[in-house]
């Protein structure tokens, strides 16, 4: 049996985590000016290098805006953020996402999966079906919600790769952490078997080269998770 090494977060990471919590909790509001680097370093007992690196990190995520000769201000991360911002929101919420972000992410997934199916179903080869079957077999072997979520993601990502669209797989993979988190929660709430059944039926439509059937089934499954009988993070 082999254990992974335990690594402590760096001082910069601890600074970023503290400031992100203050912003996401509303303690710091959009437009607020944060103290100068020297003052922050003195208050927190760290070097200015740590503060400078942390501010640069948070600016890249869209949490802060650096205004030359004026200071550093809290930015509206919904306008200036990136995928890294979404991951920070997840971490703030204990690895989950708030309801609004869940709905938005699933709606985006629906649009991308429909695009993928439009491209992959009419053109998939027999070899492609074999590869997709392997991904489905991996999913069917899953026994826990986290394993099923990873399998569900791998199945969908394989479809993206087989679509021939060069951007879809990259875009899909960039959303892996939040998407796997959603499917893990879905499997925990409604059962691993249901997640498997969704993919089995979609595979059958793809194998039959039934574009409309695959799209209709995919929309139905995702719509149930958005605002139907199997919503994510809503009251059961």
UniProtKB/TrEMBL annotation:
Keyword vocabulary terms for this entry: DNA-binding, Transcription, Transcription regulation
Organism field: Eggerthella guodeyinii
Classification via PANTHER family: GNTR FAMILY REGULATORY PROTEIN, TRANSCRIPTIONAL REGULATOR, GNTR FAMILY
Protein name per its UniProtKB record: GntR family transcriptional regulator
Domain of life according to the entry: Bacteria
Domain (HTH gntR-type) ranges: 9-77
InterPro entries referenced in this protein's UniProt entry, alphabetically: GntR_C (IPR011711), TF_FadR/GntR_C (IPR008920), Tscrpt_reg_HTH_GntR (IPR000524), WH-like_DNA-bd_sf (IPR036388), WH_DNA-bd_sf (IPR036390)
Transmembrane segments: none
Gene Ontology molecular function: DNA binding; DNA-binding transcription factor activity
């Amino acid at each position: 049996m082999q254990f992974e090494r335990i690594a402590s977060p760096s001082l910069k990471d601890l600074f970023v985590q503290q400031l992100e919590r203050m912003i996401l909790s509303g303690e710091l509001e959009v437009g607020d000016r944060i103290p100068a680097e020297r003052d922050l370093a003195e208050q927190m007992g760290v070097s200015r290098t740590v503060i400078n690196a942390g501010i640069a990190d948070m600016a890249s995520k869209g949490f802060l805006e650096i205004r030359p000769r004026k200071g550093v201000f809290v930015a509206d991360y919904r306008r200036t953020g990136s995928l890294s911002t979404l991951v920070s929101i997840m971490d703030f919420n204990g690895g989950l996402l708030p309801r609004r972000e869940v709905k938005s992410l699933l709606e985006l997934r629906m649009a991308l999966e429909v695009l993928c199916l439009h491209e992959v179903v009419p053109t998939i080869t027999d070899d492609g079906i074999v590869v997709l079957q392997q991904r489905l077999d991996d999913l069917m072997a899953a026994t826990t919600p986290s394993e099923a979520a990873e399998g569900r993601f791998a199945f969908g990502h394989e479809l993206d790769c087989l679509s021939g669209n060069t951007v879809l797989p990259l875009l899909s993979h960039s959303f892996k952490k939040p998407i796997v988190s959603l499917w893990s929660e879905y499997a925990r709430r409604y059962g691993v078997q249901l997640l498997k059944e969704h993919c089995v039926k979609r595979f059958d439509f793809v194998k039959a080269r039934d574009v409309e059937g695959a799209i209709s089934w995919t929309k139905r499954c995702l719509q149930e998770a958005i605002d139907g009988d199997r919503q994510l993070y809503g009251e059961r």
